Amino acid sequence: SQQGEEDPQALSIQEGENATMNCSYKTSINNLQWYRQNSGRGLVHLILIRSNEREKHSGRLRVTLDTSKKSSSLLITASRAADTASYFCATVQGGSEKLVFGKGTKLTVNP
Amino acid sequence: SQTIHQWPATLVQPVGSPLSLECTVEGTSNPNLYWYRQAAGRGLQLLFYSVGIGQISSEVPQNLSASRPQDRQFILSSKKLLLSDSGFYLCAWASGGTNTGELFFGEGSRLTVL
Asked: pLDDT (tens digit, 9 = 90+) per residue, B18-41?
C-alpha cells in the first residue's frame, strides 16, 4: 500500500526558480527519504531525515519534516534544466525494513 | 565500493511464458534486498523484500515469486506471465541489521508482456 502521497503530481517551472514538493504520510515513521528518478532509470537517493529531525540541507536541497502533521517538503533552490525528473518520498515505519514510496512528483524545469 | 547489477534490462515475453529477473550486489555483505514494480507513470510498489538467505517477505499477493539463493543474489520469477505483469522492475539493496536507511537501486528491467 502507498504510504506517502506527493503533491503536486506535476510541476513545471523556469530555470532559476525554486521548486517545492510536498509529501504526506499516514503512520508513524522511523525516517523519511527523498529520491530522484530520471526517465527510464533507477532511483537515486537524495536525502534522509529522521523522525527526530525537523530540517536538513544538502547542497541546493532543503527538506523539512513535521511529524505532527505527518508531512514533509522538498525544496530545490535555483533549479536547473538538469533537475528535470520525478521525485519520490519514501517512509520507513518504526521497526520495519520496508521502504514504502509515494506516487511521485514529476518536475519539469524549462530552460 | 558497492555495486548492484540487474538483468535483463529489457524483456518482451508472451502471456503464459515464464519469467526470471536476476539481481546481484557486490561489495557488501548481508544486505537487505528489495524488488519493486513501477507501472508506467506511477509510483513504486513493493513486491518482495529479504533480510537474509531464504527469507522472503511478500507484500502483494500476485503471480510472482522471489528467491534469495545466495547472500547477494535476489531473483524474481513467474511460472506464467499475465498481461498485468508488464512494468518496470527495480531491484534495490540497503545495509542490513538496522532500520532501513538509504536504498541503492539497480537500473531496472522493463518487462512487456504481449
From this structure: 999 999 999 999 999 999 999 877
Q: What are the CA-CA distances from residue B19 to residues A30, A35, A80, B87 (Å)?
A: 35, 28, 40, 13
**How many CB contacts within 8 angstroms connect chain A with chain B?**
67
Residue B28, Cβ neighbours under 10 Å: how many? 17
What are the two backbone dihedrals, phi and then psi, of residue B83, each rounded to the nearest 5 degrees?
A: -55, -35
Whether residue B73 is predicted with pLDDT greater than 50 in this model: the reply is: yes
One DSSP character per residue, B15-70 reads TT--EEEEEEEES-SS-EEEEEEE-TT--EEEEEEEEETTEEEE-S-SS-EEEEEE
For A91, the closest chain B residue by CA position comes to B100
A48 interfacial to chain B (CB closer than 8 Å): yes
